[in-house]
Amino acid sequence: KDVQKEREPHVYLSKEEVKEKIQSYNSSVTDKLKMTLNTNGIYTGFIKVQMELCRPITVQSSQSQGKCAHSNNETAFYLPEGCVNTLHISSTNTVREVIEALLKKFFVADNPAKFALYKRCHKEDQVYTCKLSDREHPLYLRLVAGPRTEMLSFVLREHETGEVMWEAFTIPELQNFLRILDKEENEQLQILKKRYAAYRDKLEEALGGVWKPG
């Protein structure tokens, strides 16, 4: 299970330190997603973001795929598990800008305020997860950690239930969510009914064997 970790302080690097780290980073890259340092000191590179969304997202219906519930020109559906997106960003891009770019790539119409970006670190056989503030810079974190995703990875999630800004949802979105939840509830109810019906059949069969005349 993920363990919440305190946010680490940002360490400002000199231009020469950044250059050295980028050289070291690029020498360790195995997927050709290298970083580039520009003359103005800004560097660009790639980050991969795991999409771990529990609630359905709203997209333009012309772009949507899979099982969904329709509402006018928009569609609410669940993003497939294990979906990873690669973004090309710069060292000046903030967490909020990264979230907005991700939603744009998936044609998501939801308010970016509904989502949060997390960093996930693996240390001493434990997984530490920390929600990033909107002003942090993901590419800097990627540079400092190196290219290995087992050392640092990024995850997009919804805000926790207690943090959800429900006012950011539109009425059609909420109606779509309710329809999907009702359908899932009915599906789970049918599964439970079938399970207990099977138990009942086995019990009746066992009772019939016990009381059967010898």
Automatic annotation (TrEMBL):
Record PROSITE patterns: RA (PS50200), SARAH (PS50951)
Give the Ras-associating domain ranges: 71-161
One GO cellular component term noted in the UniProt record for this chain: microtubule
Q: Which SMART domains does this entry report, sorted A to Z?
A: RA (SM00314)
Compartment(s): Cytoplasm, Cytoskeleton
UniProt keyword annotation of Cytoplasm present = yes
The segment(s) forming the SARAH domain are: 163-210
The record's listing under InterPro entries reads: RA_dom, RASSF1-6, SARAH_dom, Ubiquitin-like_domsf
Organism superkingdom: Eukaryota
Ordered alphabetically, the record's keywords are: Cytoplasm, Cytoskeleton, Metal-binding, Microtubule, Phosphoprotein, Zinc, Zinc-finger
Q: Name one GO biological process term.
A: signal transduction
Q: Which GO terms describe its molecular function?
A: zinc ion binding
Q: Fetch the PANTHER family from UniProt.
A: RAS ASSOCIATION DOMAIN-CONTAINING PROTEIN 3, RASSF
Indicate what this protein is called per its UniProt record: RASF3 protein
